[in-house]
Amino acid sequence: MHRSIFLLFLIAVLPGQAMAVSGDEESYSPGEKRILEEVQALKKAVEALEKRLSEIEKRLEDSEGRSPTEPPFLPRGFRRGDQEKFKGITLPEKPTKEQVREYVRKIMDASRGQRMFSTNDPQIELLMAIPGEHRDVLFEAIGRENRGLADYHVLEALKQLASEDDIPLIRKLLPYKRGIVAIVIARGWEKKVEDVLVRELDDTSSFLPCEWITAVANLRNPSTYARLLRFLVDGPNPHMTIEAIESIPDFPRKDFEKAVKDLWKKRNSDSADSPPCMEFGKVAVAKAAAKIGCIDALEYCILKLNEKKASAFDGTQDLRPFVLRLVPVQFSNRELQNWFEENGDKLFFNRETGKYEIGKGVEEDY
User: Fold this and answer.
1) For 135, left (φ over 0), alpha (ψ -120 to 50), or beta?
2) What long-range pairs does 261-266 form, CB within 8 A, spacing at least 24?
3) S-S: 333 plus which of 47, 305, 316, 324, CB 3.0-4.6 Å?
4) Per-domain residue ranges for the chain?
5) Phi and psi for 265 in degrees, rounded to 5?
């Protein structure tokens, strides 16, 4: 029996070994010979299917002009825009401001439909050809089109082109064109626009880019800590706020944990006046709360594992390894849920080990 299992493994896992194995057929029982023949037939069928699939993929690539490494579900041109159009976009040797504006407009128009972005995209190189005296045109272009990532190439170009001469303009535009904060971070200018960053953070009703929270955290200024905590609890972007705060080495841990517990209580509330929360945000908050001892947050994470397949869209793609790091058992998702139902009321959080244990822990007062 064991030799039969080994035979199946050898043939299935090690391509090209089937003939070598079959050369010693005299030592096999009739049953093993039959298994060998069936496996060899299956291998030939699989190889024929793989060859056929490869031919189909090749024809698709040839007909659509797609790179073999490009995801097959993306229509032609969606990866880096229309390459032919970019080849026809040129800038005069000494352009006027209007010519530069037209040049930028053509690049952005040719980028319509793009769904994947890279720092190697040709648009960035084209935009970097704009003379320094017309750099303000690039700032003008930010936010012009109301579509996701429309500003990506302009921002990437300005990360390299912007100089300290642009800081007054950046300060003026930052409250209205908040994506510019990416340039601030790239150039290390957070201190030069600190008052603008902090002032906008005080408005917890407005949605700030993830980079904005990062920029405030990069200030490492204790006077901003209370604002960050207030934005964490009352603002619309808890996921990035948690990450930003955790990146600050000297942030008061007890204050942070109290804010996380308040936030989890708020986001986990069933009351009608609790703020709307996308699932991604709630999962992120639950994970942060579970890490500091909120047992109902751990329960939420375990229940979430059994609801549906893990997905990056709701933040559950790494939820299982996260939960397993917190509990003293290594069970399947369903077994984890059964384990929690049996032991949830006996669990306490051991701060020294960073794990939940069965027993009686020390009560904490926040």
Assistant:
1) alpha
2) 261/289, 261/292, 261/294, 261/366, 262/233, 263/232, 263/233, 263/238, 263/288, 263/289, 264/288, 264/289, 264/294, 264/296, 264/297, 266/233
3) 305
4) 80-161, 263-366
5) -60, -40
Closest residue by Cα to residue 227 from 239, 213, 206 = 213
* 354 φ, ψ (degrees, to nearest 5): 70, 25
Look-up: residue for tokens 């996308």?
278
Three-state secondary structure call for residue 129: coil
What are the mean pLDDT values of the chain's consecutive 10-residue runs (366 residues total)?
44 43 56 69 75 67 44 45 76 94 92 84 93 94 75 94 96 94 97 95 81 94 94 86 91 95 86 49 92 95 84 76 95 94 94 90 52
For the record, the structure tokens of 102 come out as: 């037209």
Angle between helices 253-267 and 238-246 (to 10 degrees): 170
What residues contact residue 11 under an 8 Å CB cut-off, 6+ apart? Answer: 17, 18, 21, 36, 39, 40, 43
The answer to whether 293 touches 349, Cβ cutoff 8 Å, is: yes
- Segment holding 348, helix H or strand E: strand 347-350
